[in-house]
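Complex 290.
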Amino acid sequence: MLCANSIDSAISALFGPSVKVIERQRVSGGDINRAYKLELSSGECAFLKSNRQRLLNMFTTETQGLEALRATGTIGVPEPLVVGADETEAFLIMEYLVPAPRRPDYWEVFGYELAALHRAECGSFFGFPTDNYIGSTPQQNAPMDSWVAFFRERRLIPQMKLAWGLLDDRSRSNLTSITDRLDDLLPEPPFPSLIHGDLWSGNAVCGPDGKAWILDPAAYVGHFEAELAMTELFGGFPERFYRAYNEVNPIDQDYSDRRDLYNLYHLLNHLNLFGLSYLSNVSTIAKRYA
Ligand code: ADP
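Predicted structure with adenosine-5'-diphosphate bound:
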């Protein structure tokens, strides 16, 4: 992975000394960063994300997540090319995914490939070599050998601490009861899975091959059910995606009882990042599992 101290020097190092950016087109869709398609004098394109200089570590950890997912060779993930910072901004440049029409079996192939990612060999611990971010919230990844303990210590409790001042007394006590009883509420997975970690529909796009490519990860080794739960959080993917997934990596019949509990992590994070409109969701789910 290259490091660079300006976007222009990064482009020359990657694409050739005489290659320049001729146009920067703003791309919408991201929640956190500014995103651009870069058109280069060589006729090639690259994808640029930028943010304040002090957020360089967000791009470094995103790169580590992209590389870990790519290394499984199971599903499309854009190649990170360079991370760096100049006097004003931090940036990440990656492979630009040229949009193409979806294959007719787009959702089935997405299901097969995500299931293959979840079955890829990834060691025996839950966590990731470095801490990273979920949105812009720090996400702790120090490894543990129990998934349930990991989900309690590294996922729910840090978000609960951040949200504490926003919560009413009843929700605080319900959440505390959940973390106390988590061993009774969640099972250990059949095997650890490397997951994307933030797989809502906006973080999958159709790539040049007509298949789904996954973007903007908050990757870690966890339980694949937590990933499936997130895919269902904001609207869900079509039924044929889950049918195909289930052919490669069978989904436990009791998974749907646990789905909202996994999503409590993301809803608490949304409460922390985006404010009180997520409070009633958090309170309702906390009450249900307490
Ligand atoms: P953020 O970190 O702000 O959430 P994303 O990584 O989700 O930003 O990117 C914002 C949008 O840009 C995505 O929803 C997608 O449409 C587009 N995009 C992201 N990565 C690429 C890429 N490598 N090539 C082409 N388009 C991309």
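The chain has two domains: 2-95, 106-289.
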